[in-house]
Fold each of these.
Amino acid sequence: MQKRLDGHAAGTRRVRVVTGGVLLVLLAVLLVACTTVPLTGRSQLMLISEETAIAASEPAYFQLLSEPAAEGRLDNDAALRARVEHISGRIIAQAIRLRPETADWKWSIHVIDEPETINAWAMAGGRMAIYSGLIHKLEPTDDELAQVLGHEVAHALARHSAEQMSVALATNVAINVWAVRDHPSTGSLAGVSLAAALAIQLPNSRGAESEADRIGIELAARAGYDPAAAVTLWQKMSTAAKSGVPAFLSTHPSHNTRIEELRALVPTMRPLYEAASAPPVYEFPPAASGLPGVAGATGATRKSDYR
Ligand SMILES: [Zn+2]
């Protein structure tokens, strides 16, 4: 390397030092950002901590549920709500056994009445929703519904939701365009919370999908739900897709081998299912089972409470 000590060279060196410093910082960020999935060891990109993702998801969750609540479309079918809550409760109890620190999460599940929407989602920290269309169009058995809910709990448990927020944050400009142009209802959200609202509408990666399938079928089996139902659920999902792509498949991209992979897991899961006598049920805290300002399951119209 040629050494020149004139002012220009010194300036260049300064630039190099600064550039080197920036690279070091970037490297440090990447090292921090690359973590591994708690249950499978897959490496994942995390631009924010799980704690930040959970905190930012709370306002996003209430914002997204405020509209159906105001319109009386949230938890308005008491029997369906009770069914979803019971199955989720059994699965969450198993999730807490796998990751005990998640006992401190504000796990919650709400049913959004949208008869044409086949979808469900989970935010960081276990804040979930399922659409009535999934029930009415797929007519799942309890064992099959447990596979959907197990899959969603698995997304939260394996930090996929926070991973999706990292993807959303990495495209900050896209977030703002998306929010302003297509989703004015997210207007009061900003920054990381806006990313939380967007994250549930981004497709998961194939790796995350396989992980959620694998963890979800195990959670359901340990909770006493027949693992064979994972196969029949996805068969129903695939039949529904032929009459128009259901929303669930746009955010949970399927792949040709999914059903075969699940079928191959059934024999391994069956002993867990058979051993699950009197599985425990997670009790949702009162604040989680009813939105603030929403009286019970009636979906009272008090929109201003969370705007
Ligand atoms: Zn998924």
Amino acid sequence: MTGAYWAEYAWLPEGAAAGVLIEVADGRITGVTAGVRAPAGATRLAGLTLPGLANAHSHAFHRGLRGRTQAGRGTFWTWREQMYALAATLTPDTYYALARAVYAEMALTGITCVGEFHYLHHAPGGTPYADPNAMGEALITAAADAGIRITLLDTCYLTGGFDRPLEGTQLRFGDTTADRWAGRVSALRPGEGHVRIGAALHSVRGVPREQLGPVAEWAAAHGAPLHVHLSEQPAENEACLATHGVTPTRLLADAGALGPRTTAVHATHLTPDDIALIGTTRTVTCACPTTERDLADGIGPIRALHEAGSPVSLGSDSHAVIDLFEEARAVELDERLRTRERGHWRAAELLRTAFAHDSLGWPDAGALRVGARADLVTLRTDTIRTAGFTPTTAAETAVFAAGAADVHSVVVDGRAIVADGHHTTVDAGRALTDTLRALA
Ligand SMILES: [Zn+2]
């Protein structure tokens, strides 16, 4: 937890610097000195060292769908049937094993903190486990064992659609009412220092209008993050308009559910009024472009949301890909495809979206500065992708050339979790292979 690192190059708040000594004590950065030679005893980090990456939107078990749900034709809704089939099989033990492997995979890609949007709460049929939080506790333990921090975004999910009850596998997600959801969540033990508990509304189709407010109030009373899937599909907007006469964004605003502690995930199909509401309330937008393209969701107005006032974070969501460098560049490249113009985002701005920890309740992470959590992610700059690196274009290399495979060292809260490209405690490839084979 204590020591000194010497980075060949490091991404500091003011930009890239060479020869940076980063001193660490008790999991915090205690000194940052640029332009120095490596002192004896310091751990040398060759390449470009970045702050820790925050994966702001994850459903760990969706990793089991990678390479399987890409076959054939379909839509978001046919994909969802396959996702439910997998969800039907998981137990606290198998969920723990899968999540530990997935979080180890995340660590190997430079992710030091995950926001787990968790809705698979109960046994099949909706029967609570003896410990009603057995599934959430499995995720918390999995993150600890993989060496990353977790914000468990415990999700309220009450209905299968506007005026439709939960059915089938969905019964595992339900707590009947927002009050019962709050009672269960309040029993979660945050435990060690690697955990925050947050709230989530599955979506405006998953939580009835009169139950939105109580969940938002719980989050406000606890100073907790509040996340919500928003307008990922036009069908949600159409059903919301038909039922309530307003868009999902307006429905959330009227329920008091927007604001700086709230994250709108996807925010793909919005009206100009929706964009203004999200921006003026400083609601965070979480873009998940690799999932959105895999599920044929569409391209969200991420730049417009940002210009309206919304901070932007990134999530690998369904884990068709786990690579926040790819998510960051996709935010820009999708905009290019839509507008046929280049350069909507500066690379440094895109990098910042990958470091954005605020929406997960960790404002002290995501920057290489004194006092911050000692999360250090180092990219090799001599690989087939990153060769040609120059410090003046460090951000461009990280965003537009590098990928998860270029991460060779990861330190989380001062602990070395990845060294020489290998997880220090979990054989992630073996763990993924074994757990996914057992689920097949
Ligand atoms: Zn999601």
